[in-house]
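During the no-cost extension, the postdoctoral fellow (Dr. R.K.) reprocessed legacy sequence entries with the updated structure-token encoder. One reprocessed record is reproduced below for audit purposes.
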Amino acid sequence: MKRRPAVILVMLSAALFYMTTSAYAAESENPFLGTWDIDLQQSQFGSATPPVSMSRTYADLGDGNYMYLVVSTDEQGALSGSSASYSYSGEQYPIASLDQLEAPRISYRRINDATVEYTVRLGGEIQSIGAKFISPNYSKLQIAIQYPNSDQEDQILVFNKRNN
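Re-encoded structure tokens follow.
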């Protein structure tokens, strides 16, 4: 009877090892996964007003599908955010947003393991195009954003990976 706790301990250790290595493998396959916090000092907001805070979270939904959630706070403490499910197929997906009546659509295309391009459309017109880059040590995310049909200036946003 005393061997039973040892067997359970070994089984729990094996399960924990499996979950840890599986999570690491998923992250190494897609280094964008996780939560990222804006680096206000390194970011360039162009003509837009910088937020007080901003975080981006990317999660794996399985079968080549992902989701993102962006939450930011302005100087008055008001929250804004958006979220979408997507794949790297180039297909367009609706963006859920707290501050827009009509849902824009986003499409992603993976260039390589550390670079992704995306396009945001509203009513069929391109609103913004961007590229996301991950640093070689996976600690920084840089997003370059252009607004081709607008007077809004380009942005370069830099995020630090949150240690969970």
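The chain has one helix and eleven strands. Helices lie at 3-29. The remaining legacy entries will be reprocessed before the final report is submitted.
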